[in-house]
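Researcher: Sequence recovery benchmark, item below. Answer with residues only.
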């Protein structure tokens, strides 16, 4: 049985459907796929969209990462920011993890803020987005998959639906998770 971690899921409304800011939030390191995202975003050649990057990394990694973007005015490094304020700035969150992410907490946080998600098909992320309409997966093993999905979004060919989000978010509330653990403990005690 999989029991997810609790995630704060205060509901936000009135998202701007025309928001042309795409976001990444997290540690700036190779396993998080940030360089993959930057290169895919740059290859889209869409100056009408902006990539906002929130987070920090080691100077040895972040320095060369910034060099890749040095000629791109539409890629902005924000440093560390509060997730709630970040989600309110973007129209799409990209989670380009290249490692087997055990639990994509930011996927749930973004959905709670009514921000659609484009995420890699690695680790526990597909479990969260399985049969969901708030997010779409791309194939992290296919170099062109992320670019293709980004262009679909930019061309208005990607659609999201948040009409069933409230029911989904109940799975991440503390009281629900506590009851799930209690049920497992009860079953274990009965078997002994």
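Model:
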């Amino acid at each position: 049985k999989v029991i997810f971690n609790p995630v704060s899921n205060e509901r936000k409304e009135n998202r701007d459907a025309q928001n042309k800011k795409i976001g990444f939030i997290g540690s700036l390191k190779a396993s998080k796929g940030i360089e993959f995202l930057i290169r895919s975003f740059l290859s889209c050649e869409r100056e009408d969209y902006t990539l906002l990057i929130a987070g920090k990394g080691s100077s040895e990694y972040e320095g060369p990462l910034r060099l890749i973007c040095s000629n791109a005015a539409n890629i902005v490094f924000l440093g560390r920011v509060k997730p709630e304020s970040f989600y309110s700035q973007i129209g799409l969150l990209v989670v380009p993890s290249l490692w087997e992410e055990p639990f994509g907490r930011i996927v749930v946080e973004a959905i709670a803020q009514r921000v659609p998600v484009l995420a890699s098909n690695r680790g526990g992320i597909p479990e969260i987005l399985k049969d969901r309409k708030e997010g779409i997966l791309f194939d992290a093993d296919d170099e062109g998959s992320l670019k293709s999905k980004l262009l679909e979004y930019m061309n208005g060919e990607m659609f999201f639906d948040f009409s069933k989000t409230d029911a989904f978010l109940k799975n991440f509330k503390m009281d629900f998770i506590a009851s799930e653990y209690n049920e497992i403990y009860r079953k274990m005690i009965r078997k002994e």
